[in-house]
Amino acid sequence: HARRSANGIFLPHLVASMEQVEETYIMVKPDGVQRGLVGEIISRFEKKGFRLTGLKLFQCPKELAEEHYKDLKTKSFFPKLINYITSGPVVCMAWEGVGAVASARKLIGSTNPLQAEPGTIRGDLAVQTGRNVVHGSDSPENGKREIALWFKEGELCQWTAVQAPWLRE
Ligand code: ADP
């Protein structure tokens, strides 16, 4: 990144470029697929201006669900969570953008849909934590980890969106 001039002086007009381009793993959970919310959910990230780099419908095996949620292994709801995630196909997505991880979490809303703000995906479309329709990575590190976990390399695609110059100055 060219954040500094040759003599190391910080260049204020390049501040915007310092905001980190991040990858986030977004997944429509089985309830979202069953309820016909796939288009609606994809549309929210698409409209926001993130770039889609991976997309597939997928029946998740138990082992993958357990690996994905390994940090929650000790929770009492873990077996239920694994049953839920493997109960039908999910839609796996990789999205990229400046600040994409935190921004996607805001678009998704609180884990408990009853506490999620109206306007968020969970706030608008769900009523229970155990059926909260969508997943989004909680850190840039987990974004990378989860995309690597759910996608094979050939399934991801880098491309330039024609709208790019109209999204960021
Ligand atoms: P988030 O998905 O918002 O990052 P967590 O990482 O805390 O939330 O939990 C992962 C998922 O586990 C939640 O989205 C939800 O599907 C499920 N979950 C979390 N807490 C509970 C709970 N108390 N009862 C049932 N399921 C839960």
Automatic annotation (TrEMBL):
<feature type="binding site">
    <location>
        <position position="132"/>
    </location>
    <ligand>
        <name>ATP</name>
    </ligand>
</feature>
<feature type="binding site">
    <location>
        <position position="122"/>
    </location>
    <ligand>
        <name>ATP</name>
    </ligand>
</feature>
<comment type="similarity">
    <text>Belongs to the NDK family.</text>
</comment>
<feature type="binding site">
    <location>
        <position position="77"/>
    </location>
    <ligand>
        <name>ATP</name>
    </ligand>
</feature>
<feature type="domain" description="Nucleoside diphosphate kinase-like">
    <location>
        <begin position="21"/>
        <end position="158"/>
    </location>
</feature>
<dbReference type="GO" id="GO:0006228">
    <property type="term" value="P:UTP biosynthetic process"/>
</dbReference>
<dbReference type="GO" id="GO:0005524">
    <property type="term" value="F:ATP binding"/>
</dbReference>
<dbReference type="GO" id="GO:0004550">
    <property type="term" value="F:nucleoside diphosphate kinase activity"/>
</dbReference>
<protein>
    <recommendedName>
        <fullName>Nucleoside diphosphate kinase</fullName>
        <ecNumber>2.7.4.6</ecNumber>
    </recommendedName>
</protein>
<dbReference type="GO" id="GO:0006183">
    <property type="term" value="P:GTP biosynthetic process"/>
</dbReference>
<keyword id="KW-0547">Nucleotide-binding</keyword>
<feature type="binding site">
    <location>
        <position position="29"/>
    </location>
    <ligand>
        <name>ATP</name>
    </ligand>
</feature>
<feature type="binding site">
    <location>
        <position position="105"/>
    </location>
    <ligand>
        <name>ATP</name>
    </ligand>
</feature>
<keyword id="KW-0067">ATP-binding</keyword>
<dbReference type="GO" id="GO:0042542">
    <property type="term" value="P:response to hydrogen peroxide"/>
</dbReference>
<feature type="binding site">
    <location>
        <position position="111"/>
    </location>
    <ligand>
        <name>ATP</name>
    </ligand>
</feature>
<keyword id="KW-0418">Kinase</keyword>
<dbReference type="GO" id="GO:0006241">
    <property type="term" value="P:CTP biosynthetic process"/>
</dbReference>
<feature type="active site" description="Pros-phosphohistidine intermediate">
    <location>
        <position position="135"/>
    </location>
</feature>
<keyword id="KW-0808">Transferase</keyword>
